Amino acid sequence: MASGKKGIIERLNAGEVVIGNGGFVFALEKRGYVKAGPWTPEATVTHPEVVRQLHREFLRAGSNVMQTFTFYASDDKLENRGQSLKISGTQINEAACDLAREVASEGDAMVAGGVCQTPSYLSCKSEIEVKAIFKKQLEVFLKKNVDFLIAEYFEHVEEAEWAVQMLKASGKPVAACMCIGPDGDMHGVSPGECAVRLVKAGAQIVGINCDFDPETCVKTEVDEGGNCSCQGLIDLPEFPFALEPRILTRWDMHAYAREAYKAGIRFIGGCCGFEPYHIRAIAEELVTERRILPSASEKHGMWGSGLEMHTKPWVRARARRDYWEHITPASGRPKCPSLSTPEGWGVTKGHAELMQQKEATSSQEIKHLMEMQKKAKSSA
């Protein structure tokens, strides 16, 4: 750790609330720097200024963790399904570490190196082959001396265990997050059993991230209750280009932060769809517990108090907590349903459709997938 800064375990053991960052992949896709589909982070090399700026916005919003933008930065993902970048995984990972450290040094933030699930695992590659992929990223994280490590966005606990085992060998603290709901991983391993296995593999922090709404994530971490599609938002027909009506408000984030805190969760952050204002809402909700407001709150009156300065009287009347705490936002789309039917194809590791390849997806393969989609919809 940088001089004077406490590490992640030291902070959590002291009862502090650590706030993570948000969703770089979705945020930068909407800004035009990440391609939906491969979702790879070459922007760390091609457009470092935008990655740096997003880190800085999360820092100002209250984040204590600058996670390296290394999601899907493994070589097998960078070469998957016709993608041919002239940038190596090592270049991307090194640039990501440098950017995260640069911004972390501007405030009270730690740098976390992150790895995630791989195409190789879905293609049934061996444990040795998959661990070699994680090892290559880990070598960069050690070279750049990140403060701790995160294994995130894993659908299969077995692959998450392999990642944790590899990361643990570094001697640095390891957090592990799975993108699962109350029904467990893609092979039906319950959330509780996943947590036990990750701790045994060497994780000191375990949790849930992505694919499900905050309420479901908290429920999954606490009591495993509920009944959801196994893959959450990825199964929604709106994924990924029509999810905007589902984006949560800053007031939803207040509720999420409070429920997470009440459940005993002390490392709270966000993933896909989380913008800096969502992270700021978490920091503002927990201002009493954390005893600090983020810099970005200078431009945001608590519970809408800034609206007292509005020119319109009916808007000034909304400058109060009880108004925003009980708001039920309308979509403004009268012909849209409130819910949609998930496309649960029921495929996972070992199924032919999930075998990955370097070659681009062919028109014949697309035709086959359309037939599968039609079948899935008819049986939904």
TrEMBL record:
Q: Which GO terms describe its cellular component?
A: cytosol
Q: Which cofactor does it need?
A: Zn(2+)
InterPro entries for this protein = BHMT, BHMT-like, HCY_dom, HCY_dom_sf
Q: Could you tell me the Gene Ontology terms of the biological process aspect for this record? A: L-methionine salvage; methylation
Keywords (alphabetical) are: Metal-binding, Methyltransferase, Transferase, Zinc
Presence of keyword Metal-binding: yes
Q: Domain named Hcy-binding: which ranges?
A: 6-286
Q: Which PROSITE patterns match?
A: HCY (PS50970)
Q: How is the cofactor bound?
A: Binds 1 zinc ion per subunit.
Q: Which domain of life is it from?
A: Eukaryota
State where Zn(2+) binds.
C210, C271, C272
Q: Which one of the record's GO molecular function terms can you name?
A: zinc ion binding
- Pathway involvement of the protein, from the record: Amino-acid biosynthesis; L-methionine biosynthesis via de novo pathway; L-methionine from L-homocysteine (BhmT route): step 1/1
Asked whether the UniProt record includes Cell membrane among its keywords, one would answer: no
> According to its UniProt entry, what is the function of this protein?
Involved in the regulation of homocysteine metabolism.
Q: How does it assemble?
A: Homotetramer.
The protein here is known as: Hcy-binding domain-containing protein
